[in-house]
Amino acid sequence: MDIIDVALALIISKLFGELAVRLKQMAVLGELFTGILFALIMTYFHGISFPLFGHTFSYNVHLTGESFELFANLGIILLLFIAGMETDIKDLKQSGKRGLSTASLGVTLPFLFGAIFALKVMHFQMKQSLVVGAIFTATSVGVTVRALMDLKQLRSKAGTTIITAAVIDDIIGILVLTFVLGTQTISNLIIGFIFFMFIIFVLALGPVQAYMRFAHEKMHSPYAVAAMAIGFGLLIAAFAREVGLAPITGAYFAGILIGMTPEKKVLDKPLNYIARSIFVPMFFVKVGTLFDFKMLTQVDFKFFWLIPIAFAGKFLGCGTGSLISGLKPKDAVRVGVGMMPEMEVALVIVTFAYGQGIFPKIIGSQLVSVTITYVVLSAILVPVLLRLLFPPIESAREIVKNEQ
């Protein structure tokens, strides 16, 4: 029933997204609540069955099949690919200093807050405390990028700082992960990153321009240029994963390369239509499904203190870092809020640590529950807060009309 999962998730997420827009919120909230609705159904209700044309039709909601996972994973990759295309390389250079300052403090403070709380208040062992600190270090900007796109603020000072900081944050986060869990040697990661950036630099010198020019001028099949661009983005995302970086980092840099070509002008509309109508909503539905209602009832209350501690660490660290680098207080607050979401790395760290037996079974399961809760809460709260922090925008209907 993989296909039915995708169909229902797509239809219901768009209906909820429409409701969110009519309530003057962003569509992403409707997509997240769709996932939470499915999580509620999966937790407390059994499947449905009824006779249909002489046969008994039965269906269980699970949203864990290969088709749904593929749609969701492509969603986040395409989202960052488009964000890269919309990033002006001059803006990226100008925000480099701000990004480094923001990312450095944005990793350091949540790591220290989480580790000290686990060590002194929860009385964890040192290694366990370091893992707790590492869980809340790496920002996942999928939610923030989507919100900034909807708000038309991706190229604002706060927007470019968030994007730049997120790329640096990803690299620092991987180094922290390596130090705490020992998944790779730091030297291998550094070599991998240098090799990745070397390939990106070489591609920027001419091969990407020639590749896209060929796709646009020599290929006559419908939408060939869009397909070639997406294929390139996926290849760079896979390459990034192979050298130890996050695939979304690779997708972002691939988008920057494509954005430097003249073909960018003919790609904006088709890529946004493909990504934001089908694949991107699936990713946010998937995030919502992480909410486990039953598991939350089994968590010791003191574990929940990690959630405001993580929020405070990210907000204070990233906000202070951007403020020190020269941003105005208003923009520093926007950066601090925009850097709050966490996703893939946090879930990978906590599940890996749990699977490796670093935590006893009961403590490990509770930590997983709290991490998932943070992921979902940050995904819901950040778009709402950004909407309040940025100036009013056009309605969703006006945005689509202007893009046509």
Integer average pLDDT = 84
Distance between the termini: 35 Å
Q: Count of DSSP helices?
A: 19
Residue share in β-strands: under 5%
- Give the class from helix and strand content and strand pairing: mainly alpha
Rg is 21 Å
SSE run: HHEEHHHHHHHHHHHHHHHHH
CATH fold call of the largest domain:
Na+/H+ antiporter like fold
Q: What about the largest sheet?
A: 2 strands, antiparallel
The CATH C-level class name of the largest domain: Mainly Alpha
CATH architecture of the largest domain: Up-down Bundle
Into which percent range does the helicity of residues fall?
Answer: over 70%
Q: What ranges have pLDDT less than 50 throughout 5 or more consecutive residues? A: 394-400
Oligomeric assembly: single chain
Find the count of extended strands (DSSP E, 2+ residues). 2
Query: What is the 3D form?
Result: globular
Number of domains: 2
Strand order within the widest beta sheet: 1-2
